[in-house]
Specification:
208 residues; 0% strand; 7 helices; mainly alpha
């Protein structure tokens, strides 16, 4: 089980049914996150290949990254479907509210995590995420993540098919765009992980 990307690594006060619920939702997220980070590794190596003028290898990296993102989406969507079918989101939202003394401690958790160098977010980004939780809870926050990754996947797939023959101008523009988009989505997902794990155990953030 993932220790960094799931909803909650430890539920000592939960009953067996609730622990099982978390495990079923967490499993695909852990696998999806492994695929997603592998895509990031390929994109960073793509830049290395381009610096060495190896466009053929860079094109292969893009195809590998695109495949990894598609695999990640399969897992993330499976987790979302399971969460909806089993009624996970209301359970998790209630846990966050209890931990926050009545409201999900999104701002407090992310601000503490930012100060502890766990996430790279400015105050505007923190506020945007907090409002998303207030409007639709964890389901809305997670759905946004999946939607952003879906658009990123389409962009990668669109370029990957002809990357080997792409002109230099396209590489100079898209190589940075892909890495920037990946980092933006990763940071958002990282913020959700911090909220979902450390938001239920605030002392863990302070300890960092």
């Amino acid at each position: 089980m993932s220790r960094v990307c799931n909803k909650s690594p430890n539920l000592p006060d939960g009953n067996a049914a609730e622990r099982s619920l978390y495990e079923r939702v967490d499993g695909p997220i852990a696998t999806g996150s492994a695929h997603f980070m592998r895509a990031g590794g390929e994109l960073h190596l793509m830049h290395s290949d381009l610096e060495l003028n190896d466009q053929r290898q860079a094109a292969l990296r893009v195809r590998c990254a695109a495949a990894a993102v598609r695999a990640a989406l399969v897992e993330y969507r499976a987790s979302h479907r399971i969460a909806q079918e089993l009624g996970f989101y209301p359970v998790h939202d209630e846990r966050l509210r209890v931990a926050g003394g009545g409201t999900a401690p999104v701002r407090e958790t992310l601000d503490a995590a930012r100060k502890a160098n766990l996430v790279q977010l400015d105050r505007s980004a923190i506020e945007t995420i907090a409002l998303r939780y207030e409007e639709g809870g964890d389901e809305a926050a997670y759905s946004y993540f999946v939607a952003e990754l879906t658009m990123f996947s389409a962009d990668l797939d669109g370029f990957a098919t002809g990357a080997a023959e792409a002109p230099a101008a396209d590489w100079q523009r898209l190589a940075w765009q892909f890495l920037t988009a990946f980092d933006r989505i990763r940071i958002y997902g990282q913020a959700l992980a911090v909220i979902n794990i450390l938001g239920m155990t605030p002392s863990a953030v302070a300890g960092a």
